[in-house]
Design a protein that fits this description.
Length: about 260
């Protein structure tokens, strides 16, 4: 699909001028929509050692994929590490040497394909102070993206990450939250009580209490409200408004198919 240069310039300007993380996310997704992209995910930091704790941001991809990704799939997702080998955006699986992947990595691509990530555009994003991240944008169209689309997604990823680094630069020393802590934080900010979260996650109440105490300590807060406000400000979780917009977009798309 053609990308209007003027629309793209305005969209990139909105990303550049975003003052907080949530508006930044929304501006980035509007820019990606100009390229025909409705869902994406972002992780940071970007390293070849996949055991390093990564912050996952999910834009309109299924919750079940997000849950499995946080639990274990991040360990075998080859796309972030492979993006380091490309100077620009790449298109998967066409640009991948699947024969060089491990059995687990190939299996991940099969699983991801079941949740809308069979094909996509990947971008390694770089920011100040040697910070890096990865943007994976789902591509659902029959024809592969042309060079203009690839370049546009590359621009969106770079400007988005650089702006993100500027917004959160004062919080670089905050201890990273584990995948389980991020999951607990997400349920907390949806209004779930500690007993509710224990039942949802299949763990004891005392385990949830311990997670909550660690989250408070890492975010330097003393109550749930302050924790959620800080989490939204740092982009650790998506707002319910953004989630509702994503659900409406998916419902509208399904109604047209």
């Amino acid at each position: 699909m053609p990308v209007d240069d003027n629309d793209l310039i305005r969209a990139l300007g909105a990303i550049r001028d975003a003052a907080e993380v949530i508006p930044l996310r929304e501006a980035a997704m509007r820019a990606l929509a100009l390229c025909g992209i409705k869902s994406a995910y972002f992780i940071a930091p970007l390293t070849r050692d996949m055991r390093v704790g990564r912050l996952l941001t999910n834009h309109s991809l299924p919750r079940v994929w997000e849950r499995h990704y946080r639990a274990r799939l991040y360990l075998v997702d080859p796309l972030p590490s492979l993006s380091l080998e490309y100077s620009n955006a790449f298109f998967w699986p066409d640009d991948l040497d699947t024969g060089a992947l491990t059995r687990q990595q190939r299996h991940y691509l099969e699983i991801a394909g079941q949740y809308g990530l069979a094909r996509g555009i990947g971008v390694a994003c770089y920011g100040p102070q040697a910070r890096s991240g990865f943007l994976g944008a789902a591509w659902t169209h029959d024809a592969p993206p042309d060079e203009r689309i690839m370049f546009a997604v590359h621009q969106i990823g770079q400007i988005m990450f650089q702006r993100y680094c500027q917004i959160v630069r004062d919080d670089l020393d905050m201890p990273p939250l584990s995948n389980r802590e991020l999951e607990v934080l997400g349920w907390m900010c949806r209004g779930k009580s500690n007993p509710d979260m224990a039942a949802i996650l299949g763990v004891s109440r005392s385990t949830i209490d311990a997670y909550v105490r660690r989250i408070f300590a890492k975010l330097d807060v003393t109550d749930r409200t302050a924790a959620c406000v800080r989490a939204y400000a740092l982009g650790l979780i998506a707002s319910e408004e953004l989630e509702r917009l994503a659900r409406r977009a998916r419902a509208h798309e399904q109604g047209q198919s």
